[in-house]
């Protein structure tokens, strides 16, 4: 099961790179420390794997964390890579 919901929007403007929003629900994680930990892990996983999206035009991306548990970095990274590969398979023409 994926822990992410990905929203994407093809940019109408001339942007040079993908713009990413990362969201972790306060409803699922009451403590800001936990939300910030998850967001740091997602940002690092995205930074290490953003090259997977080089072949598609610049997008506005929303990465919404939907799991109710705090996952390890490697679990987050594997699920984010899976989401990015699915995004890459979409035809944006």
How would you describe this structure in keywords?
93 residues, alpha+beta, Ribosomal Protein S5, domain 2, three-stranded mixed sheet, 37% helix, 22% strand, globular
Number of DSSP strand runs: 3
Gross morphology is: globular
Instruction: Name the helicity range.
Output: 25-40%
Which fold does the CATH topology refer to? Ribosomal Protein S5, domain 2
Major sheet summary line: 3 strands, mixed
List the domain count as a whole number: 1
Give start-end ranges of low-pLDDT stretches.
none
Number of helices: 2
Mean of pLDDT = 90
Topology order in helix (H) and strand (E) letters:
EEHEH
CATH class type: Alpha Beta
Topology record:
Layout: E1 4-10, E2 19-24, H1 32-49, E3 59-65, H2 73-88
Parallel strand pairs: 2-3
Antiparallel strand pairs: 1-3
Helix pairs in contact: 1-2
Description:
The chain has 93 residues and is an alpha+beta fold. It contains two helices and three strands. The chain has helices at residues 32-49, 73-88, and strands at 4-10, 19-24, 59-65. A three-stranded mixed beta sheet has the order 1-3-2, covered by helices on one side. Strand 2 (19-24), helix 1 and strand 3 form a beta-alpha-beta unit. Helix 1 (32-49) packs across helix 2. The mean pLDDT is 90.
């Amino acid at each position: 099961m994926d822990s992410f919901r990905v929203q994407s929007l093809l940019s109408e403007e001339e942007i040079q790179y993908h713009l990413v929003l990362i969201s972790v629900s306060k409803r699922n994680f009451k403590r800001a420390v936990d939300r910030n930990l998850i967001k740091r892990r997602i940002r690092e996983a995205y930074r290490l794997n953003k090259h997977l999206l080089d072949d598609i035009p610049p997008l506005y991306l929303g990465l919404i964390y939907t799991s109710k548990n705090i996952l390890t970095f490697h679990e987050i990274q594997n699920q984010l890579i899976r989401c990015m590969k699915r995004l890459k398979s979409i035809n944006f023409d």
